[in-house]
Amino acid sequence: xxxxxxxxxxxxxxxxxxxxxxxxxxxxxxxxxxxxxxxxxxxxxxxxxxxxxxxxxxxxxxxxxxxxxxxxxxxxxxxxxxxxxxxxxxxxxxxxxxxxxxxxxxxxxxxxxxxxxxxxxxxxxxxxxxxxxxxxxxxxxxxxxxxxxxxxxxxxxxxxxxxxxxxxxxxxxxxxxxxxxxxxxxxxxxxxxxxxxxxxxxxxxxxxxxxxxxxxxxxxxxxxxxxxxxxxxxxxxxxxxxxxxxxxxxxxxxxxxxxxxxxx
Length: 264
Prior knowledge:
mainly alpha; two-stranded antiparallel ribbon; about 75% helix
């Protein structure tokens, strides 16, 4: 093959090779970051082995398709869930309210809480709709408000009330809510919104304080849906387990954030 023809063909391939290299670098960096967070968490039993491996899927996927701002949001879920689960764990264990296996979460919990968020950032990557970022923030905030807020709520000194009829019930009852837990959900939703704001995220033309409101609203409403499903379907239907409740919690958070997105 003549050298000039070879060079022309090679020059045409260079953009593709550069793009491929950029993808490989991004994946490698994402893997390293997820390892730096995931491996120590596995060691202290915040996640099980299956939770660690599924966390790689979630973390690398969100970094690749959503960028570092989106990863900061899901990182907050991971950190707040882990910290609040371990906080006064022995006290919660004595009351029979602690998560099993030392609080280590497996793949069902990871995907139950994070699958909707991953789908939203993938769709945004290809479609570019601002509403999908709102949905991502709402779903991630809902998972965080529900998990971390629930862990804090278990420490309430007052008996919680069932969300469906507001009657007092024993602590640990599915669908039970407390003022401490709901207050924690609001605070956590606002914190998630501040992280979204601080990381420079935007949903189309919406950013700043409006983005904070979208995140906090979706988080609180999604967690409330989780409590309602816990008191109804999860209690009455054997096939409707906690992971499915978590999944619909994140869907609810996404939908309410989209609703506020279009209102604003």
